[in-house]
């Protein structure tokens, strides 16, 4: 079985990635809270490729969200599917004394 870790980086990557998860969740019958609400066993057939099933029987995207500022992450978290992601999979590096462009190239 294949397992994919989805990496979303930057503002554009996170905006496109969030839309990706909305579409994939709809196709697999997963609601914004991670619950299966579908009506066909075909929707669950290869769900393990993109999701982990938590002990609470909720499906959690296998994803890491990266950015150099918290603003994009905040908009993803407050969006319709923000509850779907694990909070510790949001990673941002912010240093107010260093311009973002230099910070990105220095790491």
Structural description of this entry:
The mean pLDDT is 88. It is elongated and about 50 Å long. The protein has one domain (6-106): Rossmann fold. With 107 residues, it is an alpha/beta fold. It contains three helices and five strands. The strands form two sheets. A three-stranded parallel sheet has the order 1-4-5, covered by helices on one side. Strands 2-3 form a two-stranded antiparallel sheet.
Topology readout:
Layout: E1 6-9, H1 10-28, E2 51-53, E3 59-61, E4 63-67, H2 70-78, E5 90-92, H3 100-106
Estimated radius of gyration: 15 Å
Task: Catalogue the unreliable spans.
Answer: none
CATH class: Alpha Beta
User: H/E element string?
Assistant: EHEEEHEH
Number of domains: 1
| Strand adjacency order, main sheet | 1-4-5
CATH architecture: 3-Layer(aba) Sandwich
The tally of helices reads 3
Which percent range fits the helix content? 25-40%
3D shape: elongated
Q: Indicate the mean pLDDT.
A: 88
Query: What is the fourth-level CATH superfamily?
Result: Tubulin/FtsZ, GTPase domain
Distance between the termini: 34 Å
Quaternary form: single chain
CATH topology: Rossmann fold
β-strand amount:
15-25%
* Structural class by helix and strand composition: alpha/beta
Main sheet record: 3 strands, parallel
How many strands appear in the DSSP assignment?
5
List the defining traits of the structure above.
107 residues; alpha/beta; Rossmann fold; three-stranded parallel beta sheet; 3 helices; 33% helix; 17% strand; nucleotide-binding
At a glance:
With 107 residues, the protein is of the alpha/beta class. It is 33% helix and 17% strand.
């Amino acid at each position: 079985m294949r397992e994919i870790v989805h990496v979303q980086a930057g503002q554009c990557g996170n905006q496109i990635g969030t839309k990706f998860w909305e579409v994939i969740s709809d196709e697999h019958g997963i609601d914004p809270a991670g619950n299966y609400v579908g009506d066909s066993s075909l929707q669950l057939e290869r769900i393990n490729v993109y999701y982990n099933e938590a002990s609470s029987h909720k499906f959690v995207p296998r994803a890491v969200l990266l950015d150099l500022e918290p603003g994009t992450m905040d908009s993803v978290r407050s969006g319709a599917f923000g509850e779907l992601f694990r909070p510790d999979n949001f990673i941002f590096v912010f240093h107010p004394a260093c311009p973002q462009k230099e910070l990105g190239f220095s790491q």
